[in-house]
Amino acid sequence: MSDQEKETQEPIKKRTIRSFVVRGGRMTEGQQKNYDTNWREYGLELQDGRISYEAIFSRKSDVVIEVGFGMGASLVEMAKNAPEKDFIGIEVHPPGVAKLMMLAKEEGVHNIRVYCDDAIEVMAKCLPPSEASAFQLFFPDPWHKKKHNKRRIVQSLFAQQVAGVLQDGGHFHMATDWQPYAEHMMEVMEQEVIYVNKAGAGNYHPRPDWRPLTKFEQRGERLGHGVWDLIYTKS
């Protein structure tokens, strides 16, 4: 049976926008070993459904959610520098998840947990509503071509979904090194009445101290590339 025939015969799952496009998720033997060894401490499963932050971290705290943490170095650094907070990372790329857990273990960082799944589904099925203190989205795929702009994760629906997991006064922090995407983010967010631009309407925010510079970003700065931060507070 051809793929086309399968598509016509198999039920179609209706879905919202996805937070990612899968790119080479295969792990090396070493990465798989690290993944399996550390998952029991750091891993969270989509299939387990709605979580309690207090139960997961055994305390009440400010909880920060980050989507698309790449190889995890920046998120681990943030968690290490803010032991009074707890962090949940969501990343679909298994090698990145394996690397984050390995780094956390090496650094003795225990205030972090991770999902290896689609952020849209995790937000809908697992994260408690209106409880997170912050939501971070750093350097998402900008989808440079105009015909692909609709694939950008920062859209009105996504902004509303983020608002659903944020507590009142919580902030949605984005960063990008692609100016047209920064402008797109600004356009989307300025139209969302539930958010207030922390830097003032139409303004970008200086990079805050809590967002570490990535190696990619440092290289870009040396080459004269710009980076744009946007921080919006849920009102």
UniProtKB/TrEMBL annotation:
Binding residue positions for substrate: K145, D177, T214, K215, F216, E217
UniProt xrefs under Gene3D superfamilies: Vaccinia Virus protein VP39
Keyword Nuclease: no
Catalytic activity: guanosine(46) in tRNA + S-adenosyl-L-methionine = N(7)-methylguanosine(46) in tRNA + S-adenosyl-L-homocysteine
Entry EC number(s): 2.1.1.33
Family annotation (PANTHER family): 3-DEOXY-D-MANNO-OCTULOSONIC-ACID TRANSFERASE/TRNA GUANINE-N 7 - -METHYLTRANSFERASE, PENTACOTRIPEPTIDE-REPEAT REGION OF PRORP DOMAIN-CONTAINING PROTEIN
Protein name: tRNA (guanine-N(7)-)-methyltransferase
